[in-house]
Amino acid sequence: MEPTLHTMKPGDSARVTGFVRGERGYRQRLLAMGLTPGAIFSVVRVAPLGDPVEISVRNFTLTLRRSEAAIVLIEKV
């Protein structure tokens, strides 16, 4: 099973490898916020029901909903 951002636990780290095709508008927003291919991030916290997830990337925190996190392709580091 391939890892996904919304299944990671606090303290886990991963690298962005790309994005799911077809989500061009939101993908551009994520790129503008620093979530670019090759960027390494760590999970800071996850809400009790798993939505949203807070990550730390490039020295700032970013909170993503489960649907938003699902378009990010990752590999654990």
What does this structure look like?
The protein has one domain (5-76): SH3 type barrels, CATH 2.30.30. It contains two helices and five strands, in the order βαβββαβ. It is globular and about 30 Å long. Helices cover 17% and strands 38% of the residues. 18% of the residues are buried. It has a five-stranded antiparallel sheet with strand order 4-3-2-1-5. It has 77 residues and is α+β, with helices and mostly antiparallel strands. It has helices spanning 24-32, 66-69; strands at residues 13-19, 40-46, 53-57, 60-64, 72-76. A hairpin with a 6-residue loop joins β2 (40-46) and β3 (53-57). The longest helix has 9 residues, at 24-32.
Summarize, please.
Helix content is 17%, strand content 38%. The protein has 77 residues and is of the alpha+beta class.
Record the SSE blueprint.
Elements: E1 13-19, H1 24-32, E2 40-46, E3 53-57, E4 60-64, H2 66-69, E5 72-76
Antiparallel strand pairs: 1-2, 1-5, 2-3, 3-4
At the first level of CATH, the class is Mainly Beta
Number of folding domains? 1
Count of helical stretches? 2
Assign an overall shape. globular
What's the CATH superfamily, by name? Answer: Ferrous iron transport protein A (FeoA)
Number of strands: 5
Tell me the fraction of residues in β-strands, as a range: 35-45%
- Helix share of residues? 10-25%
Indicate the CATH architecture.
Roll
Q: Distance between termini? A: 16 Å
Largest sheet: 5 strands, antiparallel
Spatial extent as radius of gyration: 11 Å
Which fold name corresponds to the CATH topology?
A: SH3 type barrels
Strand order of the largest sheet: 4-3-2-1-5
- Which ranges are low-confidence, i.e. pLDDT below 50, for 5 or more consecutive residues? none
What order do the helices and strands follow?
A: EHEEEHE
